[in-house]
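pls ignore typos typing on phone
flavin-adenine dinucleotide + seq
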Amino acid sequence: MTLSYWLDRQYTPREPLLDVVTTQYCIVGGGITGVSLAYYLAKLGKHVILLEADEIASKASGRNGGLLVPGLEKRYDLCVQDYGRPVAHKIWQLTSQAIEIMKTLCEEEHIDAQFLQEGVIKYAMNQEELNDLITRHAPYSQLLTKEEAQKKSLRKCVGALEYPKGASYDPATFVRGLARLAEEEGATLYENALVVDWIHQTDHYSIETSGGVVHAQKIILCTNAYTKELIDLPIRPVRNQALATSSFKRTLTGGHYSADGWMYFKQTPSGEVILGGGRDKDKKTEETDVDDLNPTIQGYLTNYLGNLPLSGAFAITHRWAGIMGFTPDKLPIIGEVKKDIHVLAGFSGLGNALGFLCAKEYAQKLINGFCELPLEPFSPKRFS
Ligand SMILES: Cc1cc2nc3c(=O)[nH]c(=O)nc-3n(C[C@H](O)[C@H](O)[C@H](O)COP(=O)(O)OP(=O)(O)OC[C@H]3O[C@@H](n4cnc5c(N)ncnc54)[C@H](O)[C@@H]3O)c2cc1C
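k done
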């Protein structure tokens, strides 16, 4: 098991579940999706229990690049083609708004997640990539000329797409801060509480954990890459590698994607560079849920640091991996999959803003029967 830069700090987990407890909503999974859902359901006055197998934010949500970008993994033009312009536009608008809400939560609720709204840039290194970026040009983004883009970081790029409202943050601190807020709103969270099975009783489910049992009216699986261990859905685990350097003079602002989205990097406010990706260098090995380093990709990441405009000597302090949940069309699965069993999972490598948004909106949907986010593109039925 690798240790991410974000998780390399003291943390005291909550007690595991040892008793038999009863609730309306039982959320399984304490990453950004599950914790956001617990927060919003509790805020709406619902009785919520969250069960996390390990520690809050210990999986992808505490191991990622910490970039917040509007939109989906699926290209905007393809979303327009498949769902119509109003639906595509709404999704981009709401993901952009979600970033603002996360920023406000950090400011108003004193979550010290180093939130920086300096924009996120996607670089094109050749004409083909540039043509692709032009096709991807979506609301809330703007094309940069070669000269403008080169000033941002990668001197050999030929152009870029910038999301000025894009942001970056410390993902583990955000999720753990939100977990505290969820508790303040009345939710109960258990850590080291692995869900192993559930039984459908006449009017509720009995959820068996490694400790106690939860009787709940509804189960909501926010288990992303690990969902298949609990229910048969087309979500496969895919590994992603990352590293962090020691701190040095801050020359990089904003978040950055390059190599057609395969690489990402940023510099934290305290000067460490977080860089990750490179999965295209050994895709086959990365089709796994084993949290191990891949020497080929880690070597590639080390060399890639040479492309960044960094000044001064530095060391690599952390190398880690994280497991993402991919669906066949790279869109999450959001909805009821069996009576009173709901799923929010399969974020396919882009789940910080989207996981937060889907959870916030799904809390509304569960209680009021509708929400602002168009859910048709994410319906579980598309795979049935
Ligand atoms: C290296 C890396 C870099 C990334 N970079 C970015 C980025 O810059 N921007 C971005 O938007 N996205 C990024 N992502 C993707 C993003 O991290 C994920 O999409 C997001 O964190 C998913 O959150 P989640 O809460 O759905 O899943 P997770 O964070 O994986 O949480 C699921 C939780 O469920 C728990 N669980 C599973 N099974 C059980 C069970 N049976 N019982 C109880 N609990 C269970 C797990 O322990 C886990 O804590 C990256 C991912 C990785 C790995």
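The two ends are 35 Å apart (CA to CA). Helices lie at 32-43, 76-83, 85-108, 127-136, 146-152, 171-184, 295-304, 352-368. more later
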